[in-house]
Write a structure and sequence with these properties.
mainly alpha; two-stranded antiparallel ribbon; 2 strands; 64% helix; disordered N terminus; disordered C terminus
Length: 552
């Protein structure tokens, strides 16, 4: 008899992720069931595949999963629904909740229902209100011994995550964030006495991570302390598998405070897990690679700035500001050896960054890929190749990135990708196609509140069109300040005719780097794909910011 129900067949997904076996697993169905239950208690990422093997062995022996085991299996499967498979998580959680109720597991049923609400498409105020009700029910059940500490804490944590995602919509985000921090502190106080339970330790670690996230924009030092404690709790709870979100958040805080080298060391360690039977998910590895590439680039820039400042300060103390300029000019002519050290370091940093971006692209391929991370990785790698003159290789990557940004609905990603596509085509001797891509980028940017990027892109399109031997009409760019025409003096801080208009080797148009970044900047308390919290300035794109996975 099959352990699958018709509901799961209609979902169009496998109920459990088979994953990779460890090579020393038992064959007895009951031993496999015991193993799956143990992994579920610990929140192990391999629980889904363990349930699949247990269910298969049980079916071959003529048995079937009990409602309680079936519910745990569906929970584990839904937690694995990430990226393109994420929409299947909600129905699986709801199905698990029903089975938990049948098994008399009321606390677990509440957790599954809470996860189903969080897994929905952009949970809003209604879901938040329903989660608040589930929190009250969980607390009531806990008082009468029908819900464990781990189950009650998990429901409260999930409610906190949705509240954190909705901070940007609050009338006073800072006040709401302060109230949420107090509630999370109370949750930590509730869970701490029960930390010997691995399930509670898991919730404790994730609660500290969430507290660190919403503390980061206001108090980076306090956020760093919470995130380090989250990693300690993760390890203390016997969780030998990677804590990717915690590493990303902590490394982002370290970057923000200037500790680029420590951030890089943290990410490199996260990319090489000490336990081999719990490998990183491909999407998690890709995000870590992207964050490390960003850290390496920032570290290099920080080092160059520091060296320049240190040299200038030392010279100023010795000779005075007036003499520094003359001596610097003389040094550039007579002592070039010292100045040659920097390009070598820059080449090493650039080489590492290129390798990391290439690895990120490799880990976003396959049927279960994360569309958002994959599109961003291809865009960044394409731009990196373009900046090195590899226009053909860049063109292929950017063409692969564009559909991902279209599927995800990120306008900033589409604009930046089309603009770089146009520049590649121009350097490859196709000004006609380049003008079209610039025009499409300008059209996508027109709804933005700031009319300047669209205006600069329109001027660039017209200029490139002239190189192709034709002339097009001057399009209108409509913004909040009225109508601005493409020939108006509304650039982005760089000349629209800069770069290499004749397709030569002078480099890319400088205006490309002034365009808004994809998937950001996030709102003050939201997280981007690099683990960074908050951002300066309004969002250029209309798509919602990246949310931390809310189903764990």
């Amino acid at each position: 008899m099959s352990s699958r129900s018709p509901d799961e067949f209609r979902l169009g997904v496998r109920p459990y992720d088979r994953g990779a076996g460890t090579g020393d697993e038992p064959e007895d169905p009951h031993e496999l069931l015991h193993r799956a239950r143990r992994l579920t208690v610990h929140g192990h990422p391999g629980a889904g595949s363990a349930w699949e093997r247990a269910a298969t062995a049980l079916r071959r022996a003529g048995g079937v999963l009990t409602p309680g085991d079936h519910a745990d299996a569906l929970d584990a499967t839904a937690l694995d629904c990430r990226g393109a498979a994420r929409p299947a998580a909600g129905p699986l959680f709801f199905r698990a909740a029903d089975l938990h109720e049948r098994a008399g597991q009321r606390g677990k049923a509440l957790v599954s229902r809470a996860r189903a609400l969080v897994a929905g498409p952009g949970p809003g105020a209604t879901a938040c209100a329903r989660l608040a009700e589930l929190c009250e029910r969980a607390s009531a059940l806990h008082r009468v011994g029908q819900a464990g500490a781990a189950e009650t804490a998990t429901v409260r944590l999930l409610h906190g995550r949705v509240r954190a995602d909705l901070l940007g919509t609050a009338p006073d985000p800072a006040a709401e964030a302060a109230a949420l921090r107090e509630d999370l502190a109370r949750l930590i106080a509730f869970a701490a006495p029960h930390r010997a339970d691995p399930a509670v330790a898991r919730v404790l670690a994730d609660t500290r991570a969430l507290l660190g996230r919403i503390t980061a924009p206001d108090d980076p030092a306090a956020a760093e302390a919470q995130l380090r404690a989250a990693l300690d709790d993760h390890r203390a709870g016997g969780r030998t598998w990677p804590a990717t979100e915690h590493h990303l958040l902590l490394s982002a805080v370290l970057r923000a405070t200037g500790a680029h080298e420590e951030a890089a060391a943290l990410l490199r360690a996260a990319l090489v897990p000490q336990v081999t039977d719990t490998p990183l998910r491909a999407a998690d590895r890709a995000r870590l690679c992207l964050a490390l590439a960003r850290t390496v680039a920032g570290s290099g820039e920080q080092g160059r700035t520091a060296r320049s400042a240190e040299k200038a300060a030392g010279a100023a103390e010795a000779e005075g500001a007036a003499e520094v300029a003359a001596e610097t000019a003389e040094a550039l002519e007579e002592e070039p050896a010292e100045e040659l050290e920097e390009p070598e370091e820059t080449a090493q940093e650039d080489g590492e960054r290129l390798a990391l971006l290439a690895e990120a692209v490799r880990h976003t391929e396959g049927p279960a890929r994360d569309v958002r991370v994959g599109a961003l990785a291809r865009l960044l790698l394409g731009v990196a190749h373009a900046e090195r003159g590899g226009w053909g290789r860049a063109l292929a990557l950017l063409e692969q990135a564009l559909p991902g940004f279209q599927d995800d609905g990120d306008t900033a990603g589409r604009v930046r990708t089309r603009a770089w596509l146009a520049e590649c085509l121009l350097h490859l001797g196709e000004p006609g196609r380049a003008a079209r891509e610039y025009a499409l980028a300008a059209a996508a940017a027109r709804p933005w509140g700031d009319p300047r990027p669209g205006a600069a892109l329109s001027r660039r399109a017209e200029h490139v069109l002239g190189l192709a031997g034709t002339r097009g009409p001057v399009p209108e760019i409509r913004g909040t300040g009225g109508t601005v025409y493409a020939d108006a003096k509304a650039g982005t801080g760089a000349s629209a005719e800069g770069g290499a208009p004749d397709g030569g080797a002078r480099g890319a148009w400088p205006g490309l780097r002034a365009l808004p970044e994809p998937f950001g900047p996030p709102e003050r308390y939201q997280v981007d794909v690099y683990g960074e919290v908050g951002g300066a300035g309004p969002q250029a794109a209309t798509a919602p910011g990246t949310r931390v996975q809310g189903c764990e």
